[in-house]
Amino acid sequence: MPSKNDPMLGSATDVNARALTLGHGRNAFKWFDYLSPNEAQLDALQKQFDLHPLAMEDVRTYDERAKVLDFGSHLFITIHALTREREDIIDHELEVFLGRNYLITIHDEPMLDLERAYKRFQGDTQRRDLGPDYFLYLIADEMTNALFPMLDQIDDEIDSAEAETLERATPKTLSRIFKLKHTLIQMRRSAAPMRDVMNALAGTRYGIVDNKTALYYRDLYDRLSRIYELIETARDLLGNTLDTYLSVQSNRLNEVTKTLTIIATIFLPISFIVGWGGMNFELMPFKETVMFWLVNGSLLLIPLGMLIYFKRRGWF
Question: Hey, where are the domains in the chain?
Fold first, then answer.
């Protein structure tokens, strides 16, 4: 392990970089891990391993989609991990340089996937001789595994939104549906390029990736394809939920409109009778007792008759 004053790691006060020797035998390699490296560290890193300027430019900017670039002596790979805090998806970008005897990981925030992959690599004595390409597989595998429980949680939330839509749909329900829809779009935006990267690493085009390790990347590709299909299925279910919500709201509006129309229709003859009987002429209002009871009776019998008629027609 290099000393703390190694130019690649920076000064002795730097705590954002580490260098570990992993594996054993001829496949032993160095793992350099950087958390928000400064410019001096990046410059030393580029000079030490002769890293391509285009790759270093991507490292400095971040916000790159998952991809793999072959520069002959090394591969530059961008992969993404997703975490979910409350209802928000957080995208964690990891920049990787893969050489024949080294692996460099660069990220701008702590990533538990790296620690879990390191423990798995150290604990698997049978595969510790597979080299840095296998260690990179373990990192990507941890990122992929984290997506399944996230999708299970989202699936439960979709079921809850469906039940709420049918029972007591509110504007909050619509907000939940659109929030879940946005979450799935974010997941698809990350999973699709990741799948392409694993498919590329599973092929034989890159000599740095051993044939034995390529099989593991093929398995990762299959699981990411499954994740992509699960995301698409969840989006379809959510689209159906949205259609159901709009249909329920439309039916509810129709019911309200129908009720208000019936009420207005009932009061229409009542308003006519009251208005006609209350005109200020010599014979109006009527001065006869019979007419008094006739008018008041009509005010009761006409609405009752209309309600019976509407009921028989099935209007409510």
Answer: 17-249, 254-313
- Cα distance between residue 308 and residue 305, in whole Å: 5
Contact call for residues 132 and 31 (beta carbons, < 8 A): yes
Task: Assign 222 to helix, strand or coil.
Answer: helix
15-43 tens-digit pLDDT: 688 999 887 777 789 999 999 999 999 99
CA neighbor of 86 nearest in space, from 178, 143, 153 = 153
- Cα-based distances in Å from 149 to 10, 37, 140: 38, 32, 16
Paired tokens of 199: 């498919």
Question: What is the reported pTM?
Answer: 0.77
Cα–Cα dist 117/137, whole Å: 9
User: In 3-state terms, what secondary structure has residue 34?
Assistant: strand
Q: What is the pLDDT of residues 211-227, one digit of tens each?
A: 888 999 999 999 999 99
Distance CA 119, CA 122 (A): 5
Find out whether the peptide bond into 285 is cis, omega within 30 degrees of 0: yes
Report CA torsion sign: 28, 80, 66, 60: negative
Fold classification of 17-249 (topology level): Beta Polymerase; domain 2 (3.30.460)
